Amino acid sequence: MITASFGEQGFAILDEIFSRQEIAAIISRISAADTSRPQFRKTKDLFAIRRFLHEIPGMAELLFTPALMAIVRAYAGGEQFLVKSIYFDKPEGSNWFVAWHQDLTISVDRRLEHPGFENWTVKQGQFAVQPPVNVLESILTVRIHLDDADEGNGALRVVSGSHRDGVVRADTRGEGERVCCVGAGGVMLMKPLLLHASGRVSDSRQRRVIHLEFCDRELPEGLGWAERIEALPGSGREVRMG
Question: What domains sit in the chain, N to C, each tagged with a CATH number?
Fold first, then answer.
């Protein structure tokens, strides 16, 4: 069941969901990856991996712990499956920032016209589209923090409650802005329609985050999620990738 505060605010911060040992194992697996492939984007200001769970073998088993899947069930309900995974590393001194926005697109397996699906784009060979609002409202975003995050190293800023207004202009965000400080091993949950941004790094600490999106909604006939992974929370850590 969605907690009242999460439903009202559009985000929640849960501490110590992953242990130090679990975080160390995740970082070690990332460090061993071949970063030359197209899904890896690496500059002096940002290291990002799209289709993260597909690109890093064995990562799903490290992330879909009983603790994490209990949170997904509690906050989203239903038979959730993963529909997007991205890794972000904002290194020390990074000048990279993200302006205020909502997460309005989903990744799909092909371009197929359906009512309400618009603003098609292609990035690195992947189709993205803005779906109807009810699809976006069904998604739960889970951000796993591998480092402590605060204002100094570009932690996420949000406008509390802004997800309840549907698709909005970022310059009309109003009041309720908050910096989301999350400790290493903690998890931030949020709704895609929540207005959010992140600033530049102003100190010497990096900020590494794994961004996961879960959903229980099937897309219209002929259109599929590009990155669907079944988490199978009732059978240990078994994972089925589509």
Answer: 9-32+39-241 (2.60.120.620)
